[in-house]
Amino acid sequence: MRVLVSAGPTRERIDPVRFISNRSSGKMGYALAAAAVAAGHETVLVSGPVNLAPPAGLAELVPVESAAEMAAAVKARAAACELVIMAAAVADYRPAETADRKLKKQPGELLLRLERTEDILAALGRAKPAGQCLVGFAAETENLLANAAGKLERKNLDFIVANLVADGFGSDDNRVILIGRDGSRLELGPAPKTVIARQLLAAVAATSSGSDFSGTV
Ligand code: CTP
Question: How many whole angstroms from 136 Cα to the centroid of ligand 1?
């Protein structure tokens, strides 16, 4: 099966030396990509900036920096994949203007105006080919299950991986709940992200054999 995984944070530039980003380490997405390769799947990894070695055996590694670059890379490839997992922590906002030169400090406050980035996962959900399995992540600090189930519905997902920020960000271990479109719930961990990744992949791949897949290519 063809699998696309996105991983890591994005960086939204303020000027040539500054950016807005988040604490995502990319470990969960990289572990998922490694698990997909190990399971024999043709695996594409679209990755924001991380300090991790890419898994051996990828069909393609696409390094990106911003949410816009990640959107372009993912949208160009997703339609041909039977399983798409958006594990990346994509920035929801970017600076409305990016300075060409380093901003010099001025007296007083600096007001940074932010604009929304595209919601890549929602776009994938709207364009989902029949038979494709689309999986999102929901990192929450509160109301975990209700927020995650809302995202699954809003973004037209087949599964959502819900985790509390306190349990996962940056760490080698994680504890997640996999929620299915049919309301099924699978609690995984606490365990190393490599173990959780294998279990997640097995659970979602079982429902996405690709037999009725109608994506192009
Ligand atoms: N995501 C995305 N594009 C964005 C933002 C998020 O594809 N611009 C994806 C992430 O990869 C993840 C899921 O959407 O799979 C989680 O999105 P999140 O931002 O947490 O959810 P929202 O619906 O935006 O809700 P909120 O910001 O209210 O938490």
Answer: 8
